Amino acid sequence: MNQYGAQSQVSATLNIAGYDLSALSASTSSCQTLGRRKYFPTQKYVSASAITVYIGSFKRQERCQNIPMVARVSLVDYRGRVLLDTYVHPTHPIEDYRTPETGLNYLHLYSAPLFVGIQQRVAALIRNKILVGHRIWDFLSVLGLSHPALNTRDLALFRPLRRMLGSPSVVELATLVHLFMGRNLGLDYENSLESSRAAIDLFRSCEESFEGAVAAGAWPCDLPPSAYAQYFS
User: Fold this and answer.
1) Helix, strand and coil in the chain, % to nearest 5
2) How far apart are CA 28 and CA 5, in angstroms?
3) Predicted TM-score (pTM) of this structure
4) What SS3 class is residue 171?
5) pLDDT of 105-128, one tens digit each?
6) 91-103 confidence digits (pLDDT tens)
7) Mutual orientation of helices 173-181 and 192-215 as an angle, nearest 10°?
8) Among 152, 166, 174, 165, which residue's Cα sits nearest to residue 220?
9) How far lies 136's CA from each of 8, 24, 209, in Å?
């Protein structure tokens, strides 16, 4: 297939996804800067993701909201090497393992390390690091941790990616990596290790654009939801 045939095939696929990608070909090059200028040493970065189950629910403004509990947490370095990948023993009885989405059941968690120990290990691994991820506010909240906002690189809030897709709201990580990297994420079940690696891979492709904006004092991300402000310092 020639260049133009391949481009047409990609455009057709992306249009099916429901995004306005008419400017994608022209703008994608700004997110393909791997191997150029480095603003921070690679060891400064940690990418993280978590899988959650539900320990209950409550009503807010006539809507039922589930209460999440971390069930698996994964952290990788700049090259996707595993720093931590573990299930987490719940602190409360699980009401919904979300098995169709997670593949998890009682056997995965009953003998897993205790939450407090994992919380401490994660805190140590991300301390003084730049934390990369997608919906970082969810990750920090289920672990009860905070992190300096300026040391986060949240791909869910990164405006250039959202502009390329013509989306005013958060685009899921699986959609981002499919559209920009041609990879399928979570074909069987949610996998926090796969997600943390996908996040750092996507970040590396946008690294110069992301870090260049930060260095210039032009923060390139939208703010996380205000309800999660306590998790950012």
Assistant:
1) 45, 20, 35
2) 18
3) 0.85
4) coil
5) 999 999 999 999 999 999 999 999
6) 999 999 999 999 9
7) 70
8) 152
9) 34, 26, 19
Q: Which residues contact 10 (CB under 8 A, 6 or more apart)?
A: none
**9-13, 34-38, 61-65, 199-203 — most confident range:** 199-203
3-class DSSP state for residue 12?
A: helix
Cβ neighbours of residue 232 under 8 Å, at least 6 residues apart?
Answer: 137, 140, 146, 147, 148, 149, 152, 224
pLDDT band at 13 (very low <50, low <70, confident <90, very high): very low
Distance from C-alpha of 52 to C-alpha of 49, rounded to nearest angstrom: 10
User: For residue 188, which phi and psi values (nearest 5 degrees)?
Assistant: -95, -70
Q: In this predicted structure, what is the pLDDT of residue 18?
A: 58
Q: Can you read off the two tokens belonging to residue 186?
A: 């979570």
Compute the distance between CA of residue 233 and CA of residue 222 in angstroms, rounded to an integer.
Answer: 16
User: Can you tell me the distance from the alpha carbon of 134 to that of 29, in angstroms, rounded to the nearest whole number?
Assistant: 21
The alpha carbons of the chain give a radius of gyration, in whole angstroms, of 18
Q: Whole-angstrom Cα distance, residue 57 to residue 26? A: 45
Who wins on pLDDT, 163 or 33?
163
